[in-house]
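[audit] Reproducing an earlier prediction to check determinism. Same input, same settings, fresh worker. If the tokens differ from the archived copy the diff job will pick it up downstream; this log only records the rerun itself.
[audit] input (77 residues):
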Amino acid sequence: MTAPNAEPQLLHLVFGGELTDLDSTTFKDLSKLDIVGVYPNYKSAHAAWKAKAQATVDNAQMRYFVVHLHRLLDPDA
């Protein structure tokens, strides 16, 4: 049971890895994907994404993404 004033749980996944080239979203090695985590809202997912993206700024082919899992779980919502 959820608390009456609780925020809705909108799950987001943050992950990244090195791309084959800058014009695609194809990863060089799927076994080396960095799964940062699953977050309960976009704000916390964005903070995690930003920290990872800034930490890897020296590698131009490294990219991190935020996936809106809640949209995949309930596409009609």
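[audit] rerun output stored. Observation attached for the diff report: Strands lie at 12-18, 34-39, 62-68.
[audit] end
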